[in-house]
Amino acid sequence: MSYVPIKRPKFSLLDKIYVVELVKGLIITFKHLALSLMGKSRSKKDFNGKGVGACMPFPEQRWDSRLPEYYRGAPTLVRGEDGRERCVSCQLCEFICPARAIKVTPGAVAEGSGLEKQEKAPAEFEIDMLRCIYCGMCQEVCPEQAIFLSKEYLITLTDRKQAIRNKATLYKLGGTRKGLVNKWNQYK
Amino acid sequence: MNTIIQWCDSVLSNEIWFYLLTTVIKLVLIFAVILAFVVLSVWIERRVAGWIQDRPGPNRAGIPLFLLKRFGSKEKQPLKNVLHFFGIPENSWIANLCKWLRLEGEIPTFGLMQPCLDGGKLFLKQELTPSYVRKVYFTIAPMLVLGPPMVAAAVIPFASTVSTCYGEISMCVANLGIGPLWIFAISGLSVYGLSLAGWSSNSKYPFLGGLRASAQLISYEVAMGLSVIPLLMMFGTLNLQDIVQYQADNGWTLLPFWGEGLTLQRWALYAPIAISFIIFVTCVFAEANRTPFDMAECETDLVGGYHTEYSSMKFASFFMGEYAAMVVGSALVVTLFFGGWSIGFGADAALAAWCDWVAVLCQFLMFLIKLVAFIFFFVWVRWTLPRFRWDQVMKLGWLVFLEVAIANIFLAAAIMYFIK
Amino acid sequence: MESAISSILFYVFAAAAVLCAFGVVAFRNPVSSAMNMALCFGFTAAVYFGMGAQFLGIVQLIVYAGAILVLFLFIIMMLDVKAEEHVRKSFPMACIGVIIAGIFAGFVTKVAISLPGATDGPCPALVLCDTIGDLAPGAIEEKPAEETLAPYGAAMPKLNPAAAAMTLGADEATAAKATAFPDTKLMGQALFTKYNIPFVILSFALLAGTVGAVALGRKIRKD
Questions:
Q1: I need a surface site. Which of A117, B347, C46, C80 has the fewest CB within 10 A?
Q2: Given a cut of 70, is residue C148 above it in pLDDT?
Q3: Residues in chain C whose beta carbon is closer than 8 A to a beta carbon of chain B?
Q4: CB-CB contact of B420 with B265 (8 Å)
Q5: How high is the ipTM of this complex?
C-alpha cells in the first residue's frame, strides 16, 4: 500500500457544539498569558531571560555565551599558525556562493616569499554582508581551509558601503587558526 | 466680560445653537475616543499576542531622555544633567522619584508609543499605485472601509443624561429610536469598501478576497440581526439610551442581579439570551473581519486578500477600519449585554441624585473599562483560534446560526408568554 | 425650526437622489452605475430620516444598500466591465425607454400633487432665509412657537407623535408626553394586524422564489 489511511477522530456531540472546546482553548492561552505576566513562563530558564515570557531582552542580555558550537555567523578569512595567508585565490567560494556575496580578485604571490608554488594569492577579497546568507558553503568548499564562519551575529550598518568587508577586515576578524595545512610546505 | 457672558448666555438659550454646540462637542469626543481606541487596541493586540506566545511584545519605544541633551553637557547621564540644570540636589525626593520611575535612560511608555510611531512610519512610506488599477475606486475604497465604523459609533450612549440650566444633554451623539439597526446598517456599508478594493485592484487574489468579504458580511448580517430580537423583545425598545437605562435599573442583560432582574421571567429568559450572546458575538467577529473569520485577507490562500495591491497609509487605513469596526462592535456588545455605561447595583441612581456630572464621569469611565475588557476578549480569541475554512464559515452562518437564531426567537417568545 | 431645517435638508437630499438616479443611467461602467444606485438609496433614506420615519430609512439602508445592491455588485464585478462599456445604445430602444419612464414619472407626479398640502408650501429660498433668521441668538423667544412652525407645517407633513401614540392604544395623558414618533411600533402594528394576510402571502411568494432559485441553481447528480 502506497499510502497510509489517516484515522479521523470521531467527534462526540460536545465536541461538535464547539463552545466547550473553545473555552478550553481560551483557558490554555490565558494560562500562558498569566504565566508570562508573572514571569514564570515554562521555558524561561533555558533562555536565561529576565524579561516577560520566555524571551531574552536582547540588547541588555546577549546570546554570546550560549551559542552552540555549530553556529554559523559571518564568514572570515584565517591565517595559519605560521602566519601564512591560507587563501590561494582559487575562487571556488566565489563560484559556490548562492547569494553571490563573495568577490575575489586574484593576484600574484609576492616574489621571494617562498610560496611561489601556490601561484596565486588574493589581491583583494570582498564579502558583501548584505548579500551573505550565512549558509556556510564557502567554508565547506574551501580546499585550503581558509574561510571559516565565525560566531559573529550582530552586524549593524548605517551605510551600504560599510556592508562590504575587504581582505584586511576579514583577516583581522578571522585571526589565526591552529593546525598546519601542509599542502604547500615543500619540506614536510 | 459681562457682555461676553451675556452673549454666551443668549446663544446657549437658543435651542438650535445649544443643540448644535453640544452635539459637536459630543461628536469630537466620541471621534477622539474611537481613534484613541484604535491605537490602543493595536497596542493591546500586540502585547496580549506576545504574552500568550511567551514573548514580551512591543515594550520599547520609550521617550529617550538624551533628547534633552541641550540642557547640559554631552555626558551619558541625561537625568543627572536635567536635575543639575534645574538645580535639584541628587538625593532629594524628586530625584528619587525619577529614579524609582526608571527615568535614567528614557521615559518608559510600555510600548504605547509603538503604534503611534508605526503610524508615522506608514505616513512617510512610499505610496505606490499600480498602473493597472481603477484609480477612482482604488482611492475611495480605503475611505469606505474607515468611514462607516466612525459613523456607526454615533448612536452608542457613553453616559446617562445631564441636566443643565439650558436643557438636558443626553450623552449620546444621536439619540435615535433605532439604535442597533443603525449600527447594523452603517457597518454593513463597509462591505462596499472591501469589495471595491478587491475589484479595483484588477488582480486575481484581491478580487477573490473582495468577493469573500461581501459574501461573508451579508451572510452574517442576517444571523446578527435575528440574534438580537429576543433582547429587543425583552427591552421593548430600540433606543440604545433607553436600553442601557433599563439595564441600569433592572440588572444587566447577562448579570440580572438587581431590580426586576430578580424575577422568574428574567432568569427563565437567560437561556435564549445566552444563545443570543454567543451568536451575536460570533457575528460581530465575522462583521469586523477578525481572525477566526478573516477569510477576506487569508494570506495562506489569497496572498494578502483585498489589500494586496495597497501600500503606505492606504494599506494602514484598512487596518484602522478593521480595528475601528472591532471597537464599535465591542461597544455594541457592551451596550446590549453588559449594561453599557451603567455602574450597576443601583449605583447610577444614587450617584445621579448626588451630582449629575460626577455620575456621568463615573459612567463614562465604566463604559471605557468595559470596552477595554471586551477588546481584550476579541484579542484573546484571535490568538487562541485558528482560522476557519471558507466552506465552514458559510455553513456556520447559513446552516447553524440562522436556524438557531430563529428558533431562539420562538423560545424567547414562549418564555415571555408562559412565565409571567 | 426643526421643521425648517428638515425642509432644507429635504431639498438637498432629494436633489442629490435625483442626480444619482440620473447617474445610474448615464454612467457606462456598470460598477459606477451600481455605486450611484447605492448613493441614491442612501439619499432616499436620508429623506425618510428627515421626515422622522427613521425605521423606514434604516430598513432602506440595511435591505437595499447593505444587502441587495452588494449582491448586484457581486454579480457585476464578475462581468467583463470593459466589454460592457463599449455596448452601443440604439436610438429606438432609447425612445421606448424615455416613453416608459415619462409615463411612470407622470403617474408619480400626479399622485404627488394630489396629496394634501402638496402645492401650498413656501418656496425653498424663503425657508432658507427664515432658518437663518432663527439662528440669531434669542430669536426663538421673540416669536411665538406657532408662528415659527406654521409656514413649514404645510411643506413637510409633520408626523404627530401624540396622535400616533393614541393609535397604539396609549391614554391621553401618556400620549401628550410622547416626543419621538413611534414609527417602528406603528409599522409593526400595521404589518401584523391590518395587512397581516397580504404580508404572509408575500412571504410565501418570496419563499417560493427562493426554493425555485435553489432548485434551478442546484447541480443534479447523475448517480
A1: C80
A2: no
A3: 1, 5, 31, 35, 38, 54-55, 58-59, 61-62, 65-67, 70-71, 73-74, 77, 134-141, 180-184
A4: yes
A5: 0.79
